[in-house]
Structures are given as structure tokens and as C-alpha cells.
């Protein structure tokens, strides 16, 4: 992928719930190789935007393009996941009775695909290599055989990020990844998210912890009432009068 190419491009997006317009007219781009923070006060429309990308919420108008071509709006949730969109929700959901390694192996099987592709993947010697790579990437190699149920909260979150990485998403979306984490876990997560940068991947992070966003994000979009009121570096967002007024200056 060309550096800076568009992983996801949203145009003219309009979302309403009954008479309430949550997103009036949104344009948004996330690029390969970047960690993009999406911030804004409660009710700004962050979750709604992610729900549209994953196919959970249907907009009234607009297009959502993955990789500059496919319009995701014509697809259902499993098809969108298969096309390369991975999302991690706030609460970790790992298979507690399975080991860390087994959780990663299982993640590959959760990706919907044909039986034939399934059998091929299990016979593929590279499968084990991929598990080892991801274990390394999330920093859990030493705990590969530990049951996921006894991991600390932060370790479960990293495992879940690893489960998404197994599927090689083009767009990886993380919903408040450091909520409820200790300071040390937050630091480890910042390292991990920074390492997620790849020419084949865009990372989108919704987060309330501003210091964390500043540490990890190459670019931030500030949403307010469904409108992007700022896009650029987090350090500049802090100085922006409008951003301060609606958000940071509370
Ligand atoms: P954020 O994630 O930035 O806190 P949300 O995307 O959750 O904001 O919400 C944006 C706005 O849309 C809020 O005013 C919220 O109350 C409203 N909203 C979200 N989902 C629904 C829904 N299913 N029905 C009605 N209103 C909703």
C-alpha cells in the first residue's frame, strides 16, 4: 500500500435516530500507516461513526469506502469484517478457559470464510508462525500457555487486540483501549498501539484519556455534535479555540 493512502473514506455521512440527527454531514479519512484518534465530548457521535463503519448502524446518506474502492454500506456486518475491518469494544471478551495461544488460533477460525479456505488455513504451516508473531507483538509470548481467564485486565485487552491482528485487518478500531487500566498497563498499551502502525493498516482509536491520545495518535479528529471541528495534531488541538470551548476547556 502507498504510504498515506486512504484506508477508510467517509463522505456525506448522515445518521439520525428518529427525529434526532446524530451526524448531519460527515467527511472523514483515516490513512494507512497512521494511528488516528477520534475524540470529543460524550454524545459527539464517535460510537455512531464506528457503528456505521462496522455495519451495525445504517445511515440515511453517504458513502464509506474501504481501501478507496469497496463501499461498505452495501454490506452486512460479517462481510465488512471479512473485508478487513476489525473492532475492539471496551470490555474484553476472550475465551477464559482457553490458553492465550488457543485464543489467537480461535480468532482465525472466527473469520467467516469458505470451508475450503478453512481447511487450507489449518494445514498451512505459516499459521503457527503468525501466532508466534502476534504473541510477540502483543508482548504475551511468555504467557502463551496460560489460561486467558487468569490474565490481568490489561493483558486480556492486549490478547483481544492480538485476536484482531490474527485476521490482518486493514482498519483496526479500538474503543477506549485504556479504560480501567493501571498507569503501567496504560504505558504498555501506548507502546503496543504505536507498534501497530503498519503500511498495511490504519488504526482508529476512540479515547477519553487525552494524554494517552497525544502519546499514540499521529492525527486526531475532534467531533462535536456529529461535526468534525478539528483535524490535525493533538498538540495543536489543545491550542484550538473552538476545541477548547467545546471540549478541553470544560
Ligand atoms: P459518543 O460515542 O461520542 O459519546 P454516540 O455516537 O454514542 O456519542 O452518540 C451520539 C448521539 O446520538 C448522542 O446524542 C446519543 O444520545 C445519540 N444516539 C446514539 N445511538 C442512539 C440510538 N440508538 N437511538 C437514539 N439516539 C442515539
TrEMBL record:
Gene Ontology MF term list: ATP binding; ATP hydrolysis activity
Keywords: ATP-binding, Nucleotide-binding, Transport
Protein name as it appears in the record: Urea ABC transporter ATP-binding protein UrtD
InterPro entries found in the cross-reference section: AAA+_ATPase, ABC_AA/LPS_Transport, ABC_transporter-like_ATP-bd, ABC_transptr_urea_ATP-bd_UrtD, P-loop_NTPase
Organism classification: Bacteria, Pseudomonadati, Pseudomonadota, Alphaproteobacteria, Rhodobacterales
CDD domains the UniProt entry points to: ABC_Mj1267_LivG_branched
Domain ABC transporter, first and last residues per copy: 8-250
Species this chain originates from: Thetidibacter halocola
Superkingdom per UniProt: Bacteria
Annotated GO CC locations: plasma membrane
PANTHER family assigned: CONSERVED COMPONENT OF ABC TRANSPORTER FOR NATURAL AMINO ACIDS-RELATED, HIGH-AFFINITY BRANCHED-CHAIN AMINO ACID TRANSPORT ATP-BINDING PROTEIN
Amino acid at each position: 500500500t502507498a504510504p498515506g493512502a486512504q484506508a477508510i473514506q467517509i463522505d456525506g455521512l448522515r445518521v439520525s435516530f428518529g427525529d434526532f440527527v446524530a451526524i448531519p454531514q460527515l467527511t472523514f479519512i483515516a490513512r494507512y500507516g497512521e494511528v488516528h484518534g477520534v475524540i470529543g465530548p460524550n454524545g459527539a457521535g464517535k460510537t455512531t461513526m464506528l457503528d456505521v463503519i462496522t455495519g451495525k448502524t445504517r445511515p440515511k446518506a453517504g458513502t464509506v469506502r474501504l481501501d478507496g474502492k469497496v463501499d461498505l454500506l452495501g454490506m452486512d456486518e460479517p462481510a465488512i469484517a471479512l473485508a478487513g475491518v476489525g473492532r475492539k469494544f471496551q470490555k474484553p471478551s476472550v475465551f477464559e478457559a482457553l490458553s492465550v495461544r488457543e485464543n489467537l488460533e480461535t480468532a482465525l477460525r472466527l473469520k467467516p470464510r469458505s470451508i475450503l479456505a478453512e481447511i487450507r488455513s489449518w494445514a498451512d504451516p505459516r499459521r503457527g508462525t503468525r501466532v508466534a508473531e502476534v504473541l510477540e507483538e502483543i508482548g504475551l509470548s511468555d504467557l502463551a500457555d496460560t489460561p486467558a481467564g487468569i490474565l490481568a485486565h490489561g493483558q486480556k485487552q492486549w490478547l483481544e487486540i492480538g485476536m484482531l491482528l490474527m485476521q490482518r485487518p486493514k482498519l483496526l478500531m479500538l474503543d477506549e483501549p485504556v479504560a480501567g487500566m493501571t498507569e503501567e498497563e496504560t504505558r504498555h498499551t501506548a507502546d503496543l498501539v504505536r507498534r501497530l502502525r503498519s503500511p498495511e493498516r490504519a488504526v482508529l482509536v476512540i479515547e477519553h484519556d487525552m494524554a494517552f491520545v497525544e502519546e499514540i495518535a499521529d492525527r486526531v479528529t475532534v467531533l462535536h455534535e456529529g461535526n468534525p471541528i478539528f483535524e490535525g495534531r493533538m498538540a495543536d488541538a489543545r491550542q484550538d479555540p473552538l476545541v477548547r470551548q467545546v471540549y478541553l476547556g470544560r
